[in-house]
Amino acid sequence: MSASASPADLYRHSLRLLLDKDIPAWIALWAEDGLMEFPFAPDGWPKRLESREAIAEYMRHYPDHIDLHDFPELRIHETTDPETIVVEMRGIGRLVESDRPFDMTYIAVVAVRDGHITSYRDYWNPLVVLEPGTDFTRSNR
């Protein structure tokens, strides 16, 4: 993505990469000092990842756990800060280990500078990961 891409365009591109399971390309969208936060993460799950390297380690096995199929109901809201968007969406697919359906609701606050994600606060629904068959903590997720 070019540095002139809007935050909304960069975010849509990032979702396409997740659907394509192209985690290295998704990681490349991050600034070196990018920050990813999970304010609602349950005990035992990371609440804050500081640096592209830490985010890469966290996401490395994502496709081994979640087979994403779509992000329906995507709504991207621009803010008074042109580098920040608020995103509402659902991620649907299946849990690889149990072959059960995956349906997660997200709200994210995403900041972009110079064509890279600098901050991502992910307000995902922790109740979904507390269901049987959704323990990804064994592989640093």
Report on the structure:
By secondary structure, the chain is α+β, with helices and mostly antiparallel strands. It has a single domain, classed as Roll (Nuclear Transport Factor 2, Chain: A), CATH 3.10.450. The chain has 5 helices and 7 strands. It has helices spanning 7-19, 23-28, 52-59, 62-65, 126-129; strands at residues 30-37, 48-50, 66-70, 75-78, 84-95, 101-113, 116-124. Strands 1, 2, 3, 4, 5, 6 and 7 form a 7-stranded mixed beta sheet that branches. Strand 4 (75-78) and strand 5 form a beta hairpin.
Can you give me a brief rundown of this structure?
With 141 residues, the chain is of the alpha+beta class. The chain contains 5 helices and 7 strands; from the N terminus they run H-H-E-E-H-H-E-E-E-E-E-H.
Unreliable spans: 135-141
Kindly name the structural category: alpha+beta
Instruction: Write down the overall mean pLDDT.
Output: 89
Corresponding CATH architecture: Roll
Keywords, please?
alpha+beta, single chain, disordered C terminus, 38% strand, 141 residues
Set down the secondary structure blueprint.
Elements: H1 7-19, H2 23-28, E1 30-37, E2 48-50, H3 52-59, H4 62-65, E3 66-70, E4 75-78, E5 84-95, E6 101-113, E7 116-124, H5 126-129
Parallel strand pairs: 1-7
Antiparallel strand pairs: 1-2, 3-5, 4-5, 5-6, 6-7
